[in-house]
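Practice problem 4.
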């Protein structure tokens, strides 16, 4: 079971005079909140990565300085990304946001280490206490943090930031962290990265992944295609990969320290990049049943596919979702055959086809054209246990087949 979510950037605006229906009046802009809520994230990792440690330890994020009346918070200089933050979006607000989204909070806490320096071991107890106060952990003096947290809070699960996907870890943990930023072709080819990962021991939390630099531009279709292939691989390995989230989540167009991010905004507008819209294809994977799927094709390795059974939380109806990613420049004819349904039949009334593509792989969305590269849905007229379909070049396509009866393998 693969759980999807988001890692936050450090630019999520907190506007104290905004009254939001969806976010329970907690001051988040409705348009930005809805962009996250529409993805149905199961968890939220915050407040970021380098932001937590700081380049210098004196500029590290300290959670106790981010709570209390907003106007009384001291704020701090985020020297990792070179801007001042008033910490109006603090520890408590992130917890509220997680609660409003119905997402599990995953809080990244400082452990006495910055990007360039380390706190002396004699003072590490201060950070251990802060970790206990916040129910958190980090990597420096890892066992002290792990043992203390498990002693006082045995129900809390701990995530190590050491990669255990290739070699087994030499320390106890419940999950381990995995990051991957690369070009589109390389990320697409990482579909098999976890195929041979040990199935015993801690699970995987892919807490940061994205296509970036030249392939990504400001948020391209090409980036989304590379990411789609990688996510297909995570879905296939959901017995060991428990959680995954794209990073970063937000970027303000007036301060692009990193590009791309999933959601772009200014003082009054917002739009999602193709990478954001790709999340919609995997939103139903949380809690779904991975089905046995075999892809028989002679069209090289540019085609990837997966199949799940998922249940609509609103009406309880069951769907088979077949996702196909075509990373290549040539359209492909495919035959999709579904076996093992018994007397269960496919209902044509709500079977749909959804496709994410564009005329050029480097096409991007913008404030002028926010819907240039977004998923397009249409009725699946030839829905059935055997279908012949044409998969467009440079595309992600989802075939959702509604079943008349129960979901296979789901309770």
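Answer key:
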């Amino acid at each position: 079971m693969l759980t999807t979510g988001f890692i936050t950037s450090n630019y999520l605006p907190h506007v104290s005079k905004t009254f939001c229906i969806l976010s329970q009046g907690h001051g988040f802009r409705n348009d930005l909140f809805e962009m996250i809520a529409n993805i149905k994230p199961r968890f939220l990792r915050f407040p970021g990565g380098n932001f937590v440690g700081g380049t210098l330890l004196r500029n590290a994020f300290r959670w106790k300085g981010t709570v209390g009346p907003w106007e009384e918070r001291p704020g701090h200089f985020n020297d990792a990304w070179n801007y001042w933050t008033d910490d109006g979006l603090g520890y408590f607000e992130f917890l509220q946001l997680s609660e409003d989204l119905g997402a599990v909070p995953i809080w990244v806490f400082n452990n006495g280490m910055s990007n360039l320096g380390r706190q002396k071991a004699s003072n590490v107890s201060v950070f251990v206490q802060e970790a206990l106060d916040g129910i958190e952990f980090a990597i420096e003096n890892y066992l002290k943090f792990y043992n203390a947290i498990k002693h006082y809070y045995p129900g809390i699960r701990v995530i190590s930031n050491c990669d255990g996907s290739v070699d087994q870890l030499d320390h106890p943990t419940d999950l381990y962290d995995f990051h991957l930023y690369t070009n589109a072709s390389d990320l697409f080819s990482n579909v098999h990265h976890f195929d041979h990962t040990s199935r015993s021991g801690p699970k995987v939390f892919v807490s940061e992944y994205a296509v970036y630099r030249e392939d990504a531009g400001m948020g391209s279709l090409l980036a989304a295609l590379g990411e789609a292939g990688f996510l297909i691989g995570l879905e296939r390995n959901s017995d060991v990969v428990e959680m995954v989230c794209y990073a970063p989540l937000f970027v303000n167009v007036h301060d692009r320290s990193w590009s791309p991010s999933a959601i772009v905004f200014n003082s009054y507008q917002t739009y999602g990049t193709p990478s954001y819209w790709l999340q919609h294809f995997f939103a139903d994977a949380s809690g779904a049943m991975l089905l046995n799927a075999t892809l028989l094709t002679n069209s090289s390795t540019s085609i990837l596919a997966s199949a799940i059974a998922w249940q609509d939380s609103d009406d309880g109806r069951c769907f088979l979702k077949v996702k196909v990613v075509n990373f290549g420049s040539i359209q492909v004819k495919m035959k999709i055959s579904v076996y093992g349904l018994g007397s269960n039949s496919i209902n044509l009334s709500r079977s749909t086809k959804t496709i994410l593509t564009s005329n050029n792989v480097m096409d991007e969305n913008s404030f002028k054209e926010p819907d240039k590269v977004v998923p397009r849905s249409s009725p699946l007229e030839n829905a059935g246990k055997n279908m012949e379909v044409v998969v467009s070049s440079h595309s992600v396509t989802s075939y959702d087949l509604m079943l008349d009866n129960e979901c296979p393998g789901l309770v």
